[in-house]
Design goal:
The complex is a heterodimer of chains A (123) and B (107).
Chain A lengths: L2 E5 L2 E3 L5 E8 L8 E6 L5 E7 L8 E3 L7 E6 L4 E6 L8 E8 L8 E4 L3 E5 L2
Chain B lengths: L3 E4 L2 E4 L5 E7 L7 E6 L6 E5 L3 E2 L7 E6 L2 E6 L9 E6 L6 E2 L3 E5 L1
Parallel strand pairs in B: 2-11
Antiparallel strand pairs in B: 1-3, 3-8, 4-5, 4-9, 5-6, 7-8, 9-10, 9-11
The chains are: A mainly beta (123), B mainly beta (107).
């Protein structure tokens, strides 16, 4: 069964840091681009960023709202994706989803989602 | 950034109704569009990719169409389990962007 399981969420003060993890199973993780998407309470979905595969240099893309503060990385040997979040703001409060991109270079869009992990930024 | 505009933002429908949701992109995105369904407290699930291709395991009552800037998601016969919020998303260009969502409620 294809599965993504996020962890690492919690309560953090403004200006603080948090590292989210996503454990993948049931598919060849190293072949896929992987994304983070978030959803603030009662709001819609917001794309956070993407980590490309080794064949594409493990390069990354970010939404403007997080660029320079968040960093996506991956460890293919552990089938894991990470989101390092620094300089957290109250507006970063959300459920964070780990999402698989399907097809070559993500050409078929996002297909598999984890259950999410909740990040709350509050003093 | 490409803006994705969904309409309506909400609708009320009865079991058995045919429902159509529209998504418009602020510029052409070819067919690089996905539709998701999200139920309260749950993660989204992919229904349609490449504008009109059904994800594996998704019932055929769901269909998508469109290309360029205008897209539709149709539910042929609404069932109780279909009451949810639906989102479109373009993956033609970074940053990937979502529509604001359409909440489908029971009439």
């Amino acid at each position: 069964e294809v599965q993504l399981v996020e962890s690492g969420g919690g309560l953090v003060q403004p200006g603080g840091s948090l590292r989210l993890s996503c454990a993948a199973s049931g598919f060849t993780f190293s072949d896929h681009y992987m994304d983070w998407v978030r959803q603030a309470p009662g709001k819609g979905l917001e794309w956070v960023g993407r980590g490309r595969d080794k064949a594409n240099g493990y390069t990354t893309e970010y939404a403007a709202s997080v660029k320079g503060r968040f960093t996506i990385s991956r460890d293919d040997s552990k089938n894991s994706l990470y989101l390092q979040m620094n300089s957290l703001e109250i507006e970063d409060t959300a459920v964070y989803y780990c999402v698989r991109a399907s097809g070559r270079r993500g050409s078929y869009g996002l297909d598999v989602w984890g259950k999410g992990t909740t990040v709350t930024v509050s003093s | 950034d490409i803006q994705m505009t969904q309409s309506p933002s909400s609708l009320s429908a009865s079991v058995g109704d045919r429902v159509t949701i529209t998504c418009r992109a602020s510029q052409g995105i070819s067919n690089s569009l996905t539709w998701f369904q999200q139920k309260p407290g749950k993660a989204p699930e992919s229904l349609i990719y490449a504008a009109s291709s059904l994800q594996s395991g998704v019932p055929s009552k769901f269909s998508g169409s469109g290309s360029g800037t205008d897209f539709t998601l149709t539910i042929s016969s609404l069932q109780p389990e279909d009451f949810a919020t639906y989102y479109c998303q373009q993956y033609y260009m970074y940053p990937l962007t979502f529509g604001g969502g359409t909440k489908v409620e029971i009439k």
